[in-house]
Amino acid sequence: MVSSRLQKGFSRQQVANITGLSARQLNYWRRTGVIEPSSTTQGGHARYSFTDLIALKTVKQLLEQGVSLQKVRKSILALLQYLPMQQQPFSELKVIATGDVVLVFHQGVAMDALTGQEWIMEVAELEKEIVRQYPDAFQLVVEQEELFTANTDKKAS
Question: In terms of pLDDT, which residue wins out, 154 or 48?
Fold first, then answer.
């Protein structure tokens, strides 16, 4: 049976223990709207849901991967605009940081969290660009295609 204290959510101290975030970080993120707790007690104390914990861990991982807190905050606001049905984008969507870009996977599509633009790398377009800029590199592109075909053939065997 769940204690009556946990029925309303996890306290700030419990969340700090679970996520490894400091109480100071949680307070700052709450004040600045990065991640707000799902509810509060009558006394105004934050209570975080399991979904909030997922979002907090995601933000922490993004920060550890070098994404700035400002970019995380902007990404949350942009995602709420582009995907209005997502109440808590960092807990409801798959989020990945690739260098300075935060990608979100939604319904099988990868999109930039800040712009909402789909993130697609067209291999054929890359090949055309290489050959356009460096015509002598065509043989390198062909060799790469042969390697891919050879690896695919080996897997099929």
Answer: 48
CA atoms within 13 A on the CB side of 15: 31
Burial of residue 92 (CB within 10 Å: 0-12, 13-18, 19+) is: middle
For the stretch 36-62, pLDDT in tens is 898 988 888 999 988 888 888 888 888
- pLDDT value of residue 78: 75
Lookup: tokens for 31 = 């004040």
Report the 10 Å Cβ neighbour count for 11.
18
| Pair 57, 65: CB distance under 8 Å | no
Residue 17: band (very low, low, confident or very high) from pLDDT cuts 50, 70, 90: very high
d(CA 84, CA 20): 30
Tens-digit pLDDT profile for residues 89-103: 566 677 777 667 777
- Check if the beta carbon of residue 143 is closer than 8 Å to that of residue 149: no
